[in-house]
Amino acid sequence: MIEKVEKVLEELQKIALEKIKILGKPIPKGELFLTLNIALSGSREHLHNEAINLTKIIDAEINDLIAHMEMLPVGRIHCLKCNTATCEHSAPTKRREVFVGYKPNGTPEFRDLTQALLDKGHPQTHRLFEKKPPILALAIKPQNLFSNLLPGFKPWESMRIHGAVICGWFIDKEGEKNGITFLLVSSGTKRSRRKFYLHTINLLAAKAELDKLLLTNGTFRWDQPLQWSKKMLKIIEADLRSNTLTKAFIKKIEARLNGVLDNLALRLEKITEKETHYTKHAVERKSANRPVSQAFLDLKSATVDWSFYDDTEKSIVIVGPKSRVHIFSPNGKLITSIRYSSEAIQRKIRSGKWQRISLQQLNELKKNAIRN
Ligand SMILES: [Zn+2]
Predict the structure, then answer these.
(1) What is the whole-number distance in angstroms between the Cα of residue 88 and the centre of ligand 1?
(2) 105 CA to centre of ligand 1 in angstroms
(3) Could you tell me if residue 81 is inside a domain?
(4) Ligand 1 midpoint to CA 83 (Å)
(5) pLDDT digits (tens, 9 = 90+) for 8-34
(6) From ligand 1's centre to the CA of 80, what distance in Å?
(7) What is the pTM of this model?
(8) Structure confidence at residue 293 (pLDDT)
(9) For 345-358, how does the pLDDT look when each residue is reduced to its tens digit (9 = 90+)?
């Protein structure tokens, strides 16, 4: 049954891709939100009308996504003076810079994160100078992003800024400090179908080099707080679709959006705390010699569904319960045990970095591991 539905979805995906191709545009990132009404009885005509409706929705969704992508390329922000996001004003010029609002003339203003946090009175700013600085974050209300702008500049028509979170330091692979701005924007021509995005502004991102900030396990340090915020935004999107948009309701939505940003800032600041806790925990485990014994127990009960060959590392990966990941050499020696987030695990499987091994290979590994 699921395969049948999968086929239908695949067809819809093909239709959407064809439409984008006809428009001559690159495929935008994101998803189409479609509402399907399926009658259990009714005429052919009814189906036909539904098909027309759905086609219209697909077109509108594609247009919104493309408009969004063109207005906000990754890493940059729209410059109101030049009315584009590709001019020299639209990206930070240093890795440490974050977006703090618009200048009177409509160009975006970027500032070193320390300066920005000082200006806004973050009580812990001095900690950014520590040898191992914690992550500091601050939410900026939308009105503060526009307060210096001279009257006469109109924010973009179909896109709105609902505030931002500035944060850092994130140390990249070259040892440089990075400030990041997560800009909360929404786009969509219809108010009830607006979509919310957390848009990343940062020099590395603008240069398509954001992967310099990837951790060894393939995630970004901010992944979890960001995922949480995205989930909250999806809930708000759904509420917008299913409620009458009175003034009072819109006000409530705005308050909730502010809440998401405040909470995102809090969660970002907790990253450091969590990481310190985690490392301490890992050291304790190591000294108790537990991961190793756990590795062989996990290998013993491993199934082919969770056993992979890592082609780049030439190693065999066994995924145990609670996202425990054990890496073995092909001859059965345990190289290391780590914990990956389940998203990181899924990503490695989907990208093909990890490929499933056969039952025979798995049994061979089990035999070799015992011999070692
Ligand atoms: Zn400009």
Answers:
(1) 6
(2) 10
(3) no
(4) 7
(5) 999 999 999 999 999 888 888 777 878
(6) 7
(7) 0.66
(8) 62
(9) 888 888 888 998 99
Distance 20 CA to ligand 1 centre (A): 28
The burial of 80, by beta-carbon neighbours within 10 Å (0-12 exposed, 13-18 middle, 19 or more buried), is given as buried
Question: What is the whole-number distance in angstroms between the Cα of residue 348 and the centre of ligand 1?
Answer: 39
Ligand 1 centre and the CA of 31: distance in Å?
29
Q: At what angle do helices 290-300 and 359-371 cross, to 10 degrees?
A: 140
What are the residues whose beta carbons fall under 8 Å from the beta carbon of 301, sequence distance 6 or more?
320
Residue 317 has pLDDT above 50, yes or no: yes
Distance 292 CA to ligand 1 centre (A): 56
Q: 94 and 115 in contact (C-beta within 8 Å)?
A: no
Residues 236 and 110 in one domain: yes
pLDDT in tens, 79-137: 999 988 899 999 999 999 999 999 999 999 999 999 999 999 898 898 888 888 999 99
Q: Crossing angle for the helix pair 247-287 and 290-300, nearest 10 degrees?
A: 100
Ligand 1 centroid vs 127 CA: distance in angstroms? 34
Q: Say if residue 67 is in the same domain as residue 98.
A: no
Q: Which domain holds residue 11?
A: 2-71
Residue 80 lies in a domain: no
